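Need the bound structure for farnesyl diphosphate, inputs here:
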Amino acid sequence: MPQPTRRVAIVKTPVNNPHKGECFLGKVRDELNEVERELLVSIDPAKLPHHVAIIMDGNGRWAKQRGYLDRIRGHEAGIESVRVAVRACGELGVKALTLYAFSVENWKRPKREVDALMGLLKRFLRDEIPELNENNVRLVVSGRVNDLSEDVRAELSRTMEATSPNTGLVLNLALSYGGRAEIVDAVRAIVEDVQSGRLAPDNINEALFSQYLYHPELGDPDLLIRTSGEMRVSNFLLWQIAYTEFYVTPVLWPDFRRADLYRAILDYQRRERRFGEVKEV
Ligand code: FPP
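Answer from helper R.:
Posting the output first, comments after.
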């Protein structure tokens, strides 16, 4: 006699054990909505990315979507997303956050936009010192800093100095930054050291090369987030992203909030990182 088909209830198990991340709740200084809370408690504290890098894209489109005639409105709105990302990464215990704030190519934008971006940067550096200190964040910069105007460099130095004792998150602002330029700058420094006899060519290998990059102590990013849906690397951290996990979200940078960061981290925690190897069977 045919047996009746046994019905098995399919239980949807969450990928992450929810409530693992409850330890974060005490550290969060903003009021979380229900979605943010649910995402946060699902984050596994044992599998956090150490270094997160973000290509903050979509400011111009954000402004256009809202009917603003000026793209600069998008950059202005993007400052709040920077604050949110810095605060949220700090609370989670991420060690380093690299933000692509101004590329070497961005100098080719209309002067008015470049001036506006530099103005926003100066204001951010001036106004944000108390918030950075309150969150134990230390500021560093990556890029061809000498291309920046003297007043921007002065604000940068002041904020780096004021936050230098902080021991929590390192906020690495990529300014006048290009991945190829960084590699060229490293090559130049290596050649100088070889010519002066401080370095033997035989000692040049990948590990040594990394030491000549702008901030080798931060390590390679574990997670690279790009907003606005574009599938491009845009000359960002070319050496360092060899084995970085990519996460692209359609969210435009000025709309990027805690929930978006938490979603990116949860997605990262579901990946199997193999660094080109195979898992032993
Ligand atoms: C890309 O959007 C964004 C930038 C070139 C600048 C990013 C700058 C900020 C978020 C504000 C300043 C930052 C700090 C740290 C003070 P886009 O203009 O290319 O946007 P689109 O692709 O939609 O045109």
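Comments: The chain is about 40% helix and 10% strand. The first strand starts at residue 51 and ends at 55.
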